[in-house]
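[09:14] KT: can someone run the structure on this one? pasting the chain below
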Amino acid sequence: MTSETARQDALLDELLKDYSDPKEILGEHGLLKQLTRRLVERALEAEMTAHLGYAPNAPEGRGSGNSRNGKHAKTIQTETGQFEIAAPRDRNGSFEPQLVPKRQRRLEGFDEKVLALYARGLSTRDIQGHLEELYGVEVSPTLISNVTEAVLEEVRAWQDRPLEPVYPILYFDALFVKSREAGPVKNRAVYLALGVNLQGEKELLGLWVGESEGAKFWLAVFTELKNRGVQDCFIACVDGLKGLPEAVEAVFPETQVQLCIVHKVRHSLKYVSWKERRAVARDLRSIYGAATLPEAERALTRFAEAWDPKYPAISQSWRADWARLTVFFDYPPEIRKVLYTTNAIESLNYSLRKLLKTRGAFPNDEAIVKVLYLALQRIEKKWTMPIQNWRQALNHFVILFGDRVTL
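[09:31] RB: done, structure tokens below
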């Protein structure tokens, strides 16, 4: 143990020797609040000394043109509670404290606590109750709204940031949330674009809120991505929304569009009775799980022979979309699953839905954007590794696309 550590331990022992009840440390009038208040007041006094250039009662202050002018009470919010401090003033009114600036009543860290709760889907009322219950802090809904409002500037900068010129894979999907934006509660579509860059790392490119999911809105999203610098994409993975593949190809004409197999299977099973779903799903798996495209075509023929008498719409639907359902057969087995499902973005949506399920309707679109942006930033921090088997995928892209792969 170092002498400094021993000194700190001795100081803590001295501070805590008369305390036996946790409330005496953490309570409304506990040691922690007292120490924080004293620390803040001493720090402000030190700032005042630096501002004036002389210590309290020092002779250097005589005739200096400025002097201390008493103190005023100021209530501040911290993560450990709310308390009042005595803040120093100078006679000229030129003192600008840094620790607790003028007109600010929150110590650094308090806003981050509010934003962390907001990012986990808590409503303004929930946050208010949480802070009061745990920290004894009475916070107005207006204060919470002001803290979260500052996020919008960050969102705008993030949404407008330049993007990489090439994303080998782009995933597009939408989820729905309830909003009172136009009066009565209605579903609003939240559009998400997820890219995989040339290093194999996932990157959320943006989020947009619209009336409902539609190809026309997606076309505007793709155009915005191009305006922000995206010049090329090798494969776009999308759900089966009508007109969506054509919207991708209108903006990125060289892009291959892969329809999500998972969405296709789910749609197919809607035609099937419960007792036969397992058997139909197994036979569909023999199609997309085939080793080669010719083998998949033969599996589709066998499926039609077995199930067309009962469910003819399924094989007809697969044949109608066959060219866009089978793009992944151009690639080696190790990376096919990355391509034929939108799992990367669906797992993202799953995390967001977990967050949203306890929320009621949002008051407006800005509230939707704030909550989802903060949640997405938290989720993105967990994306530390490149996509599995990315080196094999990149080598295959080089063979197929040549100069379009700009490393």
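[09:33] KT: thanks! The radius of gyration is 30 Å.
[09:34] RB: yep, looked fine to me
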